Amino acid sequence: MNATATEKLQFRNVDIHSIPILRKYLSMATSRTCDYTLAGIYMWAGYFHYKYAIAADTLFIKGVAENNLQLPAFSLPIGRLPLNESIRILREYCYERNKTLTLSAVPADIIQPLYEIGNITTQELTDWADYLYNAADLATLKGKPYNKKRNHINRFCSDNPGWQMEVITQRNIQEITDFYKTYGQPAVDSCYVTAVVEHDQTMRVLQNYFSLGFEGVALRTPSHGIVAFAIGECCRDTLFVHIEKMRHDVSGAGETINKLFAEHMLKLHDITFINREEDVGDPGLRAAKMSYHPCSILKKYNVTFI
């Protein structure tokens, strides 16, 4: 007797022990959106209620929709199974629960293949689109569009002679963590619950940094100590900047860590693009991300099979 979809999909919690198996399958993803990175799953597992299962050498992730935490939803499966077969399993799994299948954070280039599998409706997730940049642009900041960015960096260098960039290591991780405890609290008037979640998950990443396989740098000045840090991961041709924190009272610290991290990672890895992730509907974040002139906005969708 063939196993049911429920028997095939034995979902488990995402935790630090899940990292090796998640990394194996996420490395097979072809999308440049941040939802199919290790940090995209690990950091947001609590908020989106992510759980994972492995069936037929394929990764299945269930949780909730990015724009509706009450709506059960799945990520696109990743692994050996063809898309139509993995979708069939998910539809059976939902049918066994008298539910319809909804996929969330589906990249735009997957919409047409899903239309070919079955009848679907789509909903664009406008607050969850990713900002993609040419890596060389952010590493060099050449040209007139980046005049203000270069001016901020020059101001930082002038105000802070003797500044240094440091790779995050065992020697400085505690100092970086202490810096974040002091300067990383979300604004008390923030109306975005994701800011609070992101703060807590950044602390979780720092506490487990050397188990995650991420890469990062910190910016230090003689007078202030650590004033900024950035953490990301490279997947294929793209650097995903998952965390970037700075002292806002140190002029130019944000622009400087942004450029230094891009330059550092471009030297180490064969990357073409940098993904600086979503603005989650925050107008301030949206303006900041647009000011770096993205080469593309990676749209995402909810897809429901009907």
From TrEMBL:
<protein>
    <submittedName>
        <fullName>DUF2156 domain-containing protein</fullName>
    </submittedName>
</protein>
